[in-house]
Every structure is written in structure tokens, then in C-alpha cells.
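Lab manual, section 2.4: Encoding a predicted structure.

Procedure: take the sequence of the chain (154 residues), apply the prediction step described in section 2.3, and record the output as C-alpha cells. A sample record is shown.
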Amino acid sequence: MAKRIIGNINIENARLGYKNFIGAEGPYNEAGDRNFAVFLEEEQARELEAIGWNVKRPKEKVLDEGEIDERQPYLPIKITFDNFPPKVVLIAGEHITQIGEAEMQALQYADIISADLVIRPYQYDFLGKQGIKAYCKALYVTIETDAFADKYRL
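Recorded output:
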């Protein structure tokens, strides 16, 4: 397969899901692996799939009376702090803080108002499987604050 030049993807107002910012072990996650998903519109999902990105499509569920539960495609995003640590910025009211690996738990349970995201591609060719894995390069997250957060500079 010829090597393709793939650039970063920028997504404004990203809708995040399947959040595991703390790296909790689970049925689909090894302990310490931090990740989340960004939901995609159908057209964007098809474009990314066509060039080899690892887009996931949840199975549809059949609901009562023949209705189908249409689920949105998503791109799983890994967050690693070893070779290429991401820039993660937490915006809470008037306070803007760049956070590191130790503070990622702040995002796990936060009520996220908006998120802007830069995704870094990693092209792999391993044991006959080829594709593009998505890594977080930058994440700017605005979270909901309470009435006293600005007063106490939290």
C-alpha cells in the first residue's frame, strides 16, 4: 500500500462520548488507557472511512413497532502523555488552565458545555492490518461552573 499523507483533523463544537479520561479498566479498555469518542456526521464518517480512519458504527437496535434506533458513527480517540503529550485546556468560567495527565480526572465527571479538538493521525501497518488510529493532539474543553466558581477562583 502506498503511503498517504494524512493531516490533522480539527473539530469545533465536538460532541464527546464514551469518556475514559482517567484510564479506568473496563470490558473494552485496559487499565491506564485514556480515551474518548467524538461523534461524527454521516458524511464526515464516510470521508474518513474512505481514507482509512478507524471509524466505528454502533449496531442498530430494533425498537417497538419496527422503529430503528439510528446511532451516530464515532471516531475513538486515544490520549497518551508519553511521546507526544496533548495540549489539554480546561475553561471554567473566566479561568483557563492547561492540565496534564494527573489532572485528567477533572474532565471525567465534568459537565462539558463545548469541546474543540485537534486529532493527530497515526498510520499503522501491523500483522497485515492497515489503517489510521486517532490520537488527541489538543483538546479545549469548556465546562459548566456553579454560581461561586468565579468568586472563589475555581
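Check your result against the sample. The mean pLDDT is 89.
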